[in-house]
Amino acid sequence: MTPKWVRLGVGLVLAGLLATAPAHAARCITSQGQFEAYKQALAQQAASAGVGQRGMQALQQSGISGITWRFESNPSSQTGTRYRSPEQFLRSRFSSVNSFVSGAKRRLGQKAGLFQALERQYGVPGSILVAIWGYETSWGGYTGDTPIVSGAVTLASYCRRHPRFEDDAIAALKLVDRGVISGNSRGGPSGELGHMQFLAGNWIRFAVDGSGDGRADPNNSADALATAANMLRRNGWRAGQPFTEGSRNFRVLSAWNDSGNYQRAIAYAASLIDQ
């Protein structure tokens, strides 16, 4: 690992970015024109958190994500802001509940050995994992087209979200350092990663090599599914216990997504997949 004093000194451009950064924590912004100033302040925090040269360069090169800003500026457009039945929530993304469930069952059968192994190790049933996988990316069919670093930094900068997601922005820079992603990698509009759309901080905390190739890659379905199972277990999932609304395991789903609509839809879909 590169010593901290070396990381702080790399690159003339990087040094200039740090030199102009304020001594206090980055302040949230209310207009897109303030984004570069926010990056300068975040650069100082990132350096103090141990982000290295590649991560700092990715921060310097990041731009404001227009789709992220528009999405956060219009909360009413977000599916989690008003009550929806599980059926309505699933149909907002898929043609029908039946098509979602049949697609999930097909993937569950295709990777039966993996899902069974994950349930034995982590206690999380395949129906839950395949439902999350399907809802997030249509089982890897679409993992997003927003630059991950730009999306994560934009989300962290926005006053309605700041500072809750600032750690995830810095985590995304650390993932660039580690070679898990690059400054050009693309994902969800909030900086989500790979098959299961992890926030960067969750990938750092819970990443598992599920494929056995010696590295954890969010774009590898086995790694992503194993990491999801690990994340749920470490947040309190109990093997063999129900996941119906009001149960302990249902509440654990809030660690994945704090939308009640999302939690109800995943539990509902998983119950149908189990049938």
TrEMBL record:
It comes from the Bacteria. It holds the Pfam family SLT_2. Residues 1-25 form the signal peptide. Keywords: Signal. Residues 34-243 form the Transglycosylase SLT domain. InterPro entries: Lysozyme-like_dom_sf, MltB-like, SLT_2. One of its GO terms (molecular function) is peptidoglycan lytic transglycosylase activity. GO terms for biological process: peptidoglycan catabolic process. This is Transglycosylase SLT domain-containing protein. It comes from Oceaniradius stylonematis. The lineage of its organism: Bacteria, Pseudomonadati, Pseudomonadota, Alphaproteobacteria, Hyphomicrobiales.
